[in-house]
Specification:
Strand content: 15-25%
Strand order of the largest sheet: 3-2-1-4-5
CATH architecture: 3-Layer(aba) Sandwich
Number of strands: 5
Distance between the termini: 30 Å
CATH class: Alpha Beta
CATH topology: Rossmann fold
Helix content: 40-55%
Shape: globular
Order of helices and strands: EHEHEHEHHE
CATH superfamily: HUPs
Largest sheet: 5 strands, parallel
């Protein structure tokens, strides 16, 4: 079974640095690179049935847009690397979703950028990098 390395990608410069680092590690190890883009989870919990249906339709549109605007350009850039690359575009809480992807794929390493395109609330309540460094069941590499 091929080793898998999960790398978080949000389109930011730091995330791009993380992808380049993870790509080098994957090449050296002969590993598969799993690029994951997570659309931030929304904390709204009191919605009507109609609002939930509308959000479900918009979520699919958002996932498609993220794939075309953020992930596809990256794939075009790294396709000639010689590394097997898998892509996932998910919707949810960033840290929880990345941890689930690590578990589901059997990854042995998680690579993330030190800062990404997160909101001010992340800076106030704790960063994704900090959360993952504490909670991940595998080695976490935080790339500046």
């Amino acid at each position: 079974m091929t080793e898998k390395i999960v790398v978080a990608y949000d389109g930011s410069e730091n995330a791009h640095n993380a992808v380049n680092f993870a790509l080098d590690v994957a090449k050296a190890k002969g590993a598969t690179l799993v690029v994951v883009h997570v659309l931030e989870w929304s904390p709204y919990s009191f919605l009507t049935k109609t609002e939930i249906e509308e959000r479900h339709m918009r979520r699919k549109e958002e996932l498609d847009r993220a794939d075309k605007a953020i992930v596809s350009p990256l794939l075009q850039e790294i396709q000639s690397s010689g590394v097997t690359v898998e892509v996932m575009v998910k919707y949810g809480h960033i840290s929880e979703t990345l941890l689930k992807v690590v578990a589901d794929t059997g990854a042995t390493q998680l690579v993330i950028g030190r800062t990404g395109q997160s909101s001010i609330s992340t800076r106030l309540f704790g960063s994704v990098a900090g959360t993952l460094a504490q909670a991940a069941p595998v080695a976490v590499t935080i790339v500046p």
